[in-house]
Write a structure and sequence with these properties.
The chain is 36% helix and 25% strand. The chain has 140 residues and is of the alpha+beta class. A hairpin with a 2-residue loop joins β1 and β2. α1 crosses α3.
Length: 140
């Protein structure tokens, strides 16, 4: 059973990610582009997943994920308690991959596959931008 603190820890462990506020709730961004957030008014956890991944999940796990329209596209609302930490890590990494370069996403996933985890010094290859607006936390 995953919790929002699990999501926070996973997100802040991804290259270039920083946390700031979005309408009073925590949001995780790369270079200003959001990929995960907590909508404080409703308590919903929302991820920006790749559209092909979303559709498959909406059909296979309707109890754990559902669509929400954000602007002109659909994002995903997660029922965190219905996901394992491992599944959440995969989902957050998928969401992160929608806002970073394809090269960075590919290199990161390749490092994960080769080592089953990313080396502790990985974050120093891609530090969070010092001029990120509203940056409160950097990679740990």
């Amino acid at each position: 059973m995953a919790k929002f603190e699990d999501l926070r820890q996973i997100a802040l462990g991804l290259p270039l990610t920083y946390e700031d506020l979005h309408f009073g709730g925590p949001a995780f961004r790369v270079k200003g582009r959001k990929y995960a957030l907590r909508w404080m008014a409703t308590g919903q956890t929302i991820l920006k997943l790749p559209s092909d991944r979303q559709e498959a999940l909406f059909n296979s796990r309707p109890d754990a994920i559902r669509p929400i329209k954000v602007g002109t596209v659909f994002w995903s609302v997660l029922a965190l308690a219905r996901w394992s930490r491992t599944d959440l890590q995969n989902l957050v990494t998928d969401a992160w991959s929608t806002v970073v370069s394809k090269t960075l996403a590919r290199e990161y996933r390749s490092a994960l596959e080769e080592n089953s985890r990313v080396a502790d010094d990985w974050r120093f290859l891609y530090p969070a931008a010092a001029d990120s607006p509203g940056k409160r936390k950097t990679l740990r």
